[in-house]
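To the wet lab folks,

You asked to see what we're planning to order before we commit. Fair enough. Below is the target structure as tokens, and below that is the sequence we designed to fit it. If anything looks off to you, flag it before the synthesis order goes out.
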């Protein structure tokens, strides 16, 4: 084999390896990608039924119910237009309160109840995840949620 042929073969083999590695990384990234949805989007059936996603909004005042035994809590997340019931088993963040912002990660069941695996509360008065703030602003204005599968932050130009 000539040196030119060996060099060409090495370049082709390197490109194939880089392509395979890139495909594996992109596949892993896509399977771990978690989208954010507002209660209005969940009610409009835009959220995935079999995949985990994040639900964000405000904890409805008066909706927090704790189980008499155990760590199970039920509450309602609202974007001031729609409401989604949430159930969570575990310790809630210290700053979790009714009327405050929350982002819950989990899955929606067939009855429309969101089963959270993780609950995050906003950490100070000035912070709210951009997606949650945008969803609340849209709900206050009475605007429709963005098209299905499109993250809120990319839905409309700022």
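Sequence we intend to order:
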């Amino acid at each position: 084999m000539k040196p030119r042929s060996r060099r060409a073969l090495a370049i082709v083999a390197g490109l194939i390896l880089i392509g395979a590695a890139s495909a594996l990384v992109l596949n892993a990234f896509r399977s771990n990608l978690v989208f954010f949805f507002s209660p209005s989007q969940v009610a409009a059936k835009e959220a995935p039924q079999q995949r985990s996603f994040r639900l964000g909004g405000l904890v409805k005042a008066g909706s927090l119910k704790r189980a008499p035994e155990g760590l199970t809590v039920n509450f309602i997340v609202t974007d001031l237009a729609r409401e989604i019931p949430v159930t969570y088993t575990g310790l809630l963040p210290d700053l979790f309160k009714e009327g405050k912002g929350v982002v819950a990660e989990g899955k929606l069941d067939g009855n429309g109840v969101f089963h959270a695996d993780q609950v995050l509360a906003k950490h100070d008065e000035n912070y709210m995840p951009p997606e949650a703030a945008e969803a609340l602003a849209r709900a206050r204005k009475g605007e429709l949620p963005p098209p299905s599968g499109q993250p809120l932050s990319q839905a409309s130009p700022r």
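Structural context that might help your review: Residues 81 and 142 are 8 Å apart (CA to CA). Strands lie at 36-37, 53-59, 65-66, 72-78, 83-89, 101-108, 114-121.

Thanks,
Computational group
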